């Protein structure tokens, strides 16, 4: 069982930056065996994939709309995954969720591959 908790959301203007953090309950070596991901859900829209980082930290995947603006990373010593978001736009407004999957899901961009989810943190970007 892994518990993940998000933090770092807020309200910003377009062009600003935010960094989200996801704290995982598993200790260091075990944490590194989980693929971690960020998803987001805007009001009245489906939950969508944002970014993932592989179980060994070597593979990063991004949805096209955030490539070049968002960077996902993980720190095994602190059991934390981060999402650095730059040049935020109003269309980035959503609740952002952290997710964890043991080892490597077949499709890291599919929500069905993740077992553990956080409660979400709100990001609001005004124009």
Q: What average pLDDT do the residues reach?
A: 92
Oligomer: single chain
According to DSSP, the number of beta strands is: 11
Put simply, the count of helices is 1
Low-confidence stretches: none
Describe the structure.
The protein has 127 residues and is mostly beta strands. 3% of the residues lie in helices and 48% in strands. It has one helix and eleven strands. β7 and β8 form a beta hairpin.
Quick description:
The chain has 127 residues and is mainly β. It is built from one helix and eleven strands, in the order βββαββββββββ.
Structural topology:
Elements (H helix, E strand, L loop, with lengths): L3 E4 L2 E4 L4 E7 L3 H4 L2 E8 L6 E6 L6 E3 L7 E6 L4 E6 L8 E9 L13 E2 L3 E6 L1
Parallel strand pairs: 2-11
Antiparallel strand pairs: 1-3, 3-8, 4-5, 4-9, 5-6, 7-8, 9-10, 9-11
Supply the key terms.
127 residues; four-stranded antiparallel beta sheet; 3% helix
């Amino acid at each position: 069982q892994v518990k993940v908790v998000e933090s770092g959301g807020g309200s910003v203007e377009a062009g600003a930056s935010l960094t989200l953090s996801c704290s995982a309950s598993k200790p260091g070596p075990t944490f590194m065996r989980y693929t971690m991901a960020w998803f987001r859900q805007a009001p009245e829209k489906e939950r969508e994939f944002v970014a993932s980082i592989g179980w060994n930290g070597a593979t990063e995947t991004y949805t096209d709309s955030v490539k070049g603006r968002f960077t996902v990373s993980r720190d095994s010593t602190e059991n934390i995954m981060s999402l650095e978001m730059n040049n935020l736009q109003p269309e980035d407004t959503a609740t952002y969720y952290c997710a964890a999957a043991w080892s490597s899901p077949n499709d890291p961009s599919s929500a069905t591959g993740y077992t553990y989810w956080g409660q979400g943190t709100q990001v609001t970007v005004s124009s």
